[in-house]
Amino acid sequence: MSFFQKSIRSDEDLxxxxxxxxxxxxxxxxxxxxxxxxxxxYKYLKSTYSSEDAVQQVFLKLWEARSLLMVNVNLRNYLYxxxxxxxxxxxxxxxxxxxxxxxxxxxxxxxxDELLIKIEEQDMMSHFYQAIDHxxxxxxxxxxxxxxxxxxxQEIADKMNISVPTVKTHYAQxxxxxxxxxxxxxxxxxxxxxxSY
Length: 197
Fold this sequence. Notes:
Blueprint: H1 3-7, H2 11-19, H3 23-45, H4 48-64, H5 75-93, H6 99-107, H7 111-133, H8 137-147, H9 153-160, H10 164-181, H11 186-195
Helix pairs in contact: 2-3, 3-4, 3-5, 3-7, 4-5, 5-6, 8-10, 9-10, 10-11
């Protein structure tokens, strides 16, 4: 399986494979959601050890219940709910835990969704730049100059000693490659495509 194929496996596909006992699917899910769950756990537990333990318990339960999972379940919400329940139990059982932490977790404030979005955006951009690194050299350079360096087509052409039309061609082809392999990034890539001309 190629880098791109691994990158675009949907949660639904991963859940279907996990139900069949796929360790590869479990590993991808773990890598995809570990950081998100850890950050959320730490917001309330304020302990590196307790937060990491909470995340490990969530993934252990996920693996143990793999054959019982519904294919159409929202994986992120499912993991978040398991984590929330674990954190609530930790707070109830911890005599030193302050009451407001218990109330915060119960209420699930709106900024929680904002945090989820920010972390997912960061992960998405990380995957995006990893994909750029796998492009052919000139296409990779053009993308990095344009997206990270914010250079114009003329500036890129001067730096790479190629023509402006060649810069546009490399960039257009690169975006087409990335768009084909990143369905979740389609709107973002479409924005980049439109703003490049």
